[in-house]
Amino acid sequence: MRPEHPIPFADADAPVPQPLTRAPRRAALAHVAAVAGATAFSTRVAFAQEGAPAEEPPAEPDPDAVPPEMAPVEMPVGPVGVEPFAGFGYGMQAHLYYQDVPKVSRLVTDAGFGWIKQQVRWSDVEPKKGAPDWSQIDLIVDGASKANLKILFSVVTAPAWSRADGHVDGPPDDYATFGTFLTALASRYLGKVHAYEVWNEQNFSREWGGGKINAGQYIELLAVGHAALKAVDPNVVVIAGALTPTGYNDLAIAVDDVLYLQQMYAYKDGMLRSICDAIGAHAGGFNNPPDDTPQKKSVPSTTFKGHPSFYFRRIDGLREIMILSGDSEKGMWLTEFGWSTLNKARGYEYGADISEADQAKNLVRAYQIGRETGWVSAMFVWNLNFQMIVPDTDEKWPFGIVRKDGSPRPAFTALKQMPKLP
User: Fold this and answer.
1) Among the four 114, 236, 269, 314, which has the fewest Cβ within 10 Å?
2) Count of domains forming the chain
3) Strand partners for 254
């Protein structure tokens, strides 16, 4: 759908108010740096001879000899990247830092899923410029790889040293530093990390350094990230940072996700089309089943109704912008989606409308919808194991599909039993 009230990409001063909705925050730790290698070959040939050699009779040809032009040539062996991804990705977002990575990875594979997502916070990896610590992320990549899982990294949050204001959660002042970090990250885990999401919820001010939201600035950051990643491994999937469905327009707070995507495509005559492999999205259902829309209400609850942002099918509006922008061949990755049950955090009271059985049914149905579209390429449940990480007063806790001890909630069991189509 085409938004009715477009906002310029730069510093517009007349935002258009719309219904405010929640935008859940996600947090994780990670550590990374770079390694690169090159193979070089050199040959030296010397020949000296005095006088003419004595003539010898020509040798008889060997009928079994391989002609020189057909002989095998040893080629230098360089770094090997990932295989191109095809099909539909069933994924879960997990928290793996300082956890039993093999155990958490087994939860994913036991459910029949092939992808795991981890957020990588640059600010935590490299708090001091030039001195990254990637010990934990080494363990994460090793554990997930041994479980034969494909890995999606969502890379966010520039370090304080890269921003004049000293605040984190925003982009660096010099985007080239972000490119340097991504080059290091992709080089270190070449052949083991299959997809990268460049930033997260950049249409929400708190994820953009607390400043004015600017789609054009994000496109420039994505261009740097795309170039850096593809230079290391052309086969990795580069995903435009997923937008949060805010349903609200104030450049100092948040911009509606459909409107923001329209701005992304409009910047520099559709530059976005050439600097990512997929469009990222976050799809939240609040207390609405995945088939409901503003025109269809199948539940008795009265809150979070009417505005498209409150429904899983909000992804249809994002898809329409992709089509109108001439980018229909590109897929969409739902890098977060889920339903909260009873939630103790303020602003999440709607979770009381969702039983554990509802959560299970909604997640399975959402996967069915996504797979049937033909344009959703991968989906990641938010979340796998945050009940093992945070207290039950945290907003993230009721979204988890396994309990504190790692035992399955009904949602995990339902997803495990769900048929997985390629």
Assistant:
1) 269
2) 1
3) 204, 250
Q: Whole-angstrom Cα distance, residue 290 to residue 362?
A: 6
In the chain, the percentage of residues whose pLDDT exceeds 90 is 79
Q: Count Cβ atoms below 10 Å from residue 114 Cβ, excluding itself.
A: 20
Q: Degrees (nearest 5) of the Cα angle 147, 151, 154?
A: 150
Q: Report how far residue 402's alpha carbon sits from residue 386's, in angstroms, rounded to the nearest whole number.
A: 8
Q: Where residue 218 sits, what CATH number does that domain have?
A: 3.20.20.80
Contacts of 130 (CB under 8 A, 6+ apart): none
Is 207 among the domain residues?
Answer: yes
Does some domain include residue 282?
yes
Among 401, 398, 405, 395, CA closest to 415: 401
Neighbouring residues of 49: CB distance < 8 A, sequence distance ≥ 6: none
Beta 237-243 vs 376-381: how paired, if at all?
unpaired
User: Are the beta carbons of 129 and 160 closer than 8 angstroms?
Assistant: no
**What pLDDT digit, counting tens, does each position of 374-414 carry?**
999 999 999 999 999 999 999 999 999 999 999 999 999 99
Q: What are phi and psi of 198, to 5 degrees?
A: -90, 95
The CB density around residue 45, as the number of other CB atoms within 10 Å, is 4
Which domain, by its residues, includes 293?
Answer: 89-417
User: Is residue 58 in a domain?
Assistant: no
The dihedral formed by the CA atoms of 107, 110, 116 and 119, expressed in degrees to the nearest 10: -10
SS3 201: coil
Instruction: Compute and round to an integer the Cα radius of gyration of the chain.
Output: 25
SS3 63: coil
- CB neighbours of residue 54 within 10 Å: 5
| Structure letter (DSSP) for residue 395 | T
Q: What is the pTM of this model?
A: 0.83
For 255-379, where are the alpha helices, taking DSSP H only? 257-266, 314-324, 356-373
